[in-house]
Write a structure and sequence with these properties.
It is a single chain. The chain is mainly beta. It has a single domain, classed as TonB-dependent receptor, beta-barrel domain (Maltoporin, Chain A, Beta Barrel). It has six helices and 40 strands. It is globular and about 65 Å long.
């Protein structure tokens, strides 16, 4: 009853709002063109989360912040701040279909791991740009669901240092320091943070530290920028809670916080460095970055005799591009052309325990090489109409082998060329209302974990099976309204996918699926009722289905794809109680969804809907910023990920989320 009343209140409040993105007319965005431009120049719609939005939000992590926007779902199965992100209904492969960038540099890896959100201090973020359903032309693979670009702060004339500390439930302790300096021709900004917490679950302790740096100086007719960072995380894995109605077992009810896997753990160490420049030329603007990223991971799982993984992954990339303004047929144009060159190296040793790493069960070496050229032209067809035409051609060469297994099926090579395009149109119906639409094609390439099966060979040995690139035909149309303190965005979209890359629980293999489809509606809105009170709302209606397919004798045609809630609603409100004090609230409702593994839609039940509410009270006292927060205020007992048993009817394993929890923080600026 409590949930029903709360949901009714949310729905009533939502209907009183105008729906919209949070971008404003004077913002500069980069994701839509890979150069700084105003949002209205592009046919795609860009949602911008500003540093002020981050400050006001009750969200404590980047995924929780993103979850407040239309089309975005988050889920967790390990208790870290690095939740999986899913734009536009891809379920368990949401991470692989959502392209995430840090200052334009890719954070997605060629393995099935979550984005390292927690390695980016919240205070270091200038803004986050979200482009739902677009990005393949400019950025390449993995952008079918959309693109998220995190833009960090740069040193400026008003750059100030700050130090903050926080305490919270489950013995959480964190601190953060940022130091900045700016001279006449150069500047620097460095941020560091740590987090230690026992976490909600038993055997879910987390200890991590992060560093981000930005050093820049005037050079030529522009600037030169050195960016660097490092992160380290040690995490314990508690495992799932089992529900088996056949024997009356329900660990979600009897021991929600308990650990199934008290010996499991994972460690991660990473670093990145990039050197870039942006130069103003007589005929345009030139930009380029040379970047290197490295990650080391170790993980141990005690079940079934033990499994230990020791993995190293690195990426070297070069991303030059050029923007030229030109006249064609009497119309003003802006042309962006560029190249993306990226080389991945993957080295993973797998044994039963850390002590047996010298005699591994498997040793996978993989290399992926990407070479791409792209062009995007935006034409002004009159004062209020912009036409966008873009195309990309990319060659991906993939080699992988298990050095332990000499069999031919434990080694494979693949080379594929993929061509994608995007055609978009934005037309201003009047000064406040714009109509936008686009059609295009996007793609994804399989991760190493999707082509390697340690026990898939004929002798229960390793096998490597190359998969075809996933391709999607995308369509979208929408309205964008901006007037005074009211913002509105409404969009409908559809995506028809062929060769979708996914793990099929019916056949127990990673494979290219038969045709699938996603379509839906997204509504966003915000309105400032006064200088001291503002509300926003975001609603998503998402459908993800198999168009056809027969797997293991099971016909899945028309079935819903697991882990995609059809209904999702987020509300946010900000009250300025006084000149120095503010109260902020977020509420999120997520509807029912099919359990993972239930492609047949025959499990007999769905993951239950849930509603969470977060509050934050903040106060400014001179150089001090104080905040107190309550997350999951009404103590909702929910989970964002659960997997149905393949063999036993009615049995499932779930990963419970935190119950009601509190935090206090203090920040000092100097």
């Amino acid at each position: 009853m409590k949930q029903q009343k709360l949901l009714a209140a949310i729905l009533c409040a939502a209907t009183s709002l105008a729906y919209a993105a949070t971008d404003t007319l004077d913002e500069i965005v980069v994701t839509a063109t890979r150069f700084g431009s105003v949002p209205e120049i592009s046919s795609v719609n860009v949602t911008v989360i500003t540093a002020e939005d981050i400050k006001k939000s009750a969200a404590k992590t980047i995924p929780a912040l993103l979850a407040q926007h239309a089309g975005t779902q988050v889920r967790s199965n390990d208790g870290t701040p690095d939740m999986m992100i899913d734009l536009r209904g891809f379920g368990m492969t949401g991470n692989q279909n959502t392209l995430v960038l840090l200052d334009g540099q890719q954070l997605n890896d060629i393995e099935l791991t979550s984005i390292r959100w927690s390695a980016i201090p919240l205070d270091s973020i200038e803004r986050i740009e979200i482009v739902n359903g677009s990005g393949a032309v400019l950025y390449g693979a993995g952008a079918t669901g959309g693109t998220i670009n995190i833009i960090t702060k740069r040193p400026g004339k008003d750059t100030r240092g700050a130090a903050s500390a926080g305490l919270g439930s489950y013995n959480a302790r964190e601190w953060q320091v940022s130091l900045g300096a700016r001279g006449e021709h150069a500047g620097m900004l460095i941020s560091a943070s740590t987090l230690d917490s026992a976490n909600y679950r038993v055997n879910n302790n987390i200890a991590q530290s992060n560093l981000e740096g930005d050093v820049r100086a005037e050079a030529g007719h522009g600037d030169a920028v050195l960016k660097f960072g490092a992160d380290s995380q040690n995490l314990r894995f508690p495992g799932a809670r089992r529900v088996d109605p056949n024997i009356g077992q329900d660990q979600l009810a009897t021991d929600r916080r308990g650990a199934t896997t008290p010996l499991d753990y994972g460690n991660r160490q990473g670093g990145h460095v990039s050197l870039g420049t942006s130069q103003q030329l007589d005929f345009g603007e030139l930009a380029a970055e040379l970047a290197y990223r490295d990650k080391k991971q170790q993980a141990y799982y005690a079940a079934f005799g033990g499994s230990y993984l020791d993995t190293r992954l690195n990426l070297l990339s070069f991303t030059p591009r050029l923007k030229v303004a030109h006249q064609l047929g009497g119309a003003g144009n802006e042309l962006v052309v560029g190249a993306d060159l990226a080389d991945w190296d993957y080295d993973s040793i797998r044994s039963t325990t850390p002590a047996t790493i010298g005699t591994p069960m498997a040793h996978i070496l993989a290399r992926q090489s990407n070479r791409a050229l792209y062009a995007q032209n935006i034409t002004r067809l009159g004062a209020g109409t912009r036409l966008t035409l873009g195309a990309r051609t990319q060659r991906t060469d993939y080699q992988a082998r298990d050095t332990v297994n000499p069999a031919a099926y434990a080694s494979a090579n693949q080379g594929r060329s993929v061509n994608v395009y995007e055609i978009g149109l934005r037309h201003d119906l009047n000064l406040a209302l714009s109509l936008f639409g686009r059609i295009g094609r996007s793609f994804r390439v399989a991760a190493v974990d999707e082509i390697f099966d340690q026990y898939g060979g004929p002798l229960f040995d390793s096998r490597i099976t190359m998969l075809e690139p996933q391709k999607s035909q995308d369509r979208e149309v929408g309205l964008d309204y901006k007037s005074g303190t009211t913002r509105m965005r409404a969009a409908v979209y559809s995506m028809d996918l062929n060769n979708e890359i996914h793990y099929n629980a019916i056949t127990f293999t990673n494979m290219n699926l038969s045709p699938t489809r996603r379509y839906g509606l997204e509504l966003e809105g915000s309105h400032a009722y006064s200088d001291g009170f503002e509300m926003s709302a975001a609603y998503s209606y998402t459908i993800a289905k198999f168009r056809d397919g027969l797997y293991g004798g099971v016909n899945v045609s028309g079935n819903n794809i697991p882990l995609v809630p059809q209904q999702r609603l987020a509300l946010a409100a900000s009250w300025k109680l006084s000149e120095k004090t503010a109260l902020n609230a977020n509420a999120i409702y997520v509807g029912e969804q099919h359990f993972d593994n239930d492609q047949a839609n025959a499990f007999g039940k769905k993951m239950p809907a849930y509603t969470t509410v977060d509050l934050k009270l903040s106060h400014q006292a001179g150089p001090w910023s104080l905040a107190a927060a309550a997350n999951n205020l009404f103590n909702e007992k929910y989970f964002t990920y659960a997997i149905a048993s393949t063999f036993t009817p009615g049995v499932y394993n779930a990963y419970p989320m935190q119950e009601r929890n509190f935090s206090l923080s203090a920040k000092y600026q100097f």
